[in-house]
Design goal:
single chain; about 425 residues; alpha/beta; Alpha-Beta Plaits; Rossmann fold; eight-stranded mixed β-sheet; about 20% helix; about 25% strand; protease; PCSK9_ProteinaseK-like; Peptidase S8/S53 domain-containing protein
């Protein structure tokens, strides 16, 4: 089953991506197009697939494909296709709406029997067909006394010295007019940390329900990015994009969530950041093509390196060149023992034993899940027009992170990891 790690140790879990069985007579299929599940790691969802179209296809060709194949389904553009709602019975072939960002175009089909898959995969415009998989996830400046609140992570990014002074200079307004999309388990938007700044965006796992957080991971992440007392960008708007629930997600829920966030950000026309504190082995479902198109649309994508104490390049979205990949450090400026490392890491941020909001108050957690929103928060705090960055492209932001942070202060050992530690004091003269 595909192992998808929600990038923290305390909630460390596994995405089990499930796929449909291959055709009975596999010789009839173009095996270069068909992506089968690794059944040693993943479970499969019966008769459900993600169909990805060629990035070279024109809008007219895509429209023609959708029209030509429409007759093969009982229903098309069904927003509930791919839902993991209980007792979601088949009742005929159905096709979900087109998920489109730039040249990335895909849709989900369900109740599609093995023997009929050739009807789709044989079309020249189809680049690949992936068996649908279920993912099991585990998931005015004021001074804050960080010693009493345990906010060493904020203290560390607030100063160049490794000797913490137990003070964090913050501004309640940093990040105003910036949207941070939390692609995760949802957000408990009524938590006092969010002060009315958290919004429900979309539930891509169960479209019948709101993106309320039921296991806490998305709320932890959102609080570190933009909480009123434990976060960085304390004026930013947090938008919940729910792709997991009760420790489960699907390939299509993650894909749909990223696509929705990119298109919603374009409509709102404000500086925006997409935070992905999840990941899985890249061979199971690589997000490279999709995220590359998201970044081209102007959305800054910040992702977790993962917690396998392994090479981040072996995991997605940590392996995506256009994303900002974050490893985790300790209070002593060392790489966290569990953090993935290597050439795909762009920056390191504090992520061990950090305070974050929970469904019922506050808790302490560790992992790259919690280093990642710290980077998202610092970027958001600097996207205000009157501050450092204004409203730049994601590529300008990536360059700023490379040049404006603390260089050479973390003990990265012989991992090949970029020795750049997050630094971002969101108070300005």
């Amino acid at each position: 089953m595909m192992r998808i790690i929600r990038c923290d140790r305390t909630l460390a879990g596994i995405f089990y991506l499930v796929i449909v069985l291959g055709l009975t007579n596999s010789s009839e299929l173009d095996e270069q197009k068909l992506r089968r599940a690794n059944l040693k790691r993943n479970r499969r969802i019966q008769d459900e697939y993600i169909v990805t179209l060629s990035p070279d296809a024109t809008d007219a060709e895509v429209s023609d494909h959708l029209n030509r194949t429409k007759g093969k389904f009982q229903d098309v553009d069904d927003v509930h296709v791919g839902d993991r709602k209980k007792n979601n019975k088949c009742g005929g072939r159905r096709r979900g709406p087109l998920m489109s960002v730039g040249t990335y175009k895909a849709y989900v089909i369900t109740c599609f029997k093995e023997k009929d898959l050739e009807l789709i995969i044989s079309d020249n415009i189809v680049a690949k067909v992936e068996e649908q998989q279920i993912i099991r996830v585990d998931k005015s400046c004021t001074n804050v006394d960080t010693q009493s609140r345990g906010l060493w992570n904020l203290d560390r990014i607030n100063q160049k010295s490794s000797v913490l002074d137990n003070i964090y200079n913050s501004s309640q307004g940093v990040g105003v007019n910036v949207n941070i999309y939390i692609v995760d388990s949802g957000i408990q938007k009524g938590h006092p940390e969010f002060g009315g700044r958290a919004e429900f965006g979309v539930n891509c796992l169960n479209s019948y329900d709101t993106p309320t957080d039921k296991d806490g991971h998305g709320t932890h992440v959102a609080g570190i990015a933009a909480g009123l007392t434990v976060g960085v960008a304390r004026g930013a708007t947090l938008i919940a994009v729910k792709v997991s629930e009760n420790s489960e997600a699907t390939t299509s829920s993650v894909t749909a969530g990223i696509t929705w966030a990119a298109n919603d950000a374009a409509e709102r026309n404000k500086p925006a950041i997409l935070n992905l504190s999840i990941g899985w082995p890249k061979e199971d479902h690589d997000l490279n093509q999709l995220i590359a198109q998201v970044v081209k649309k102007g959305l800054i994508v910040v992702v977790a390196a993962g917690n396998e104490a392994s090479d981040a390049c072996d995991y997605t979205p940590a392996n995506v060149p256009d994303a900002i990949t974050v490893a985790s450090s300790t209070k002593y400026d060392e790489l966290a023992a569990s953090s993935n490392t290597g050439m795909c890491v762009d920056i390191i941020a504090p992520g061990e034993k950090v305070l974050c909001p929970d469904l019922h108050g506050y808790t302490i957690h560790s992992g790259t899940s919690f280093a990642t929103p710290l980077v998202s928060g610092v970027i958001a705090a600097n996207l205000n027009g009157s501050h450092n960055l204004g409203n730049p492209s994601p590529y300008v932001v990536a360059n700023w992170l490379e040049e404006g942070m603390l260089d050479g202060v973390v003990d990265v050992k012989a991992t090949g990891t970029a020795n750049i530690l997050l630094f971002g004091e969101p108070c300005y003269d």
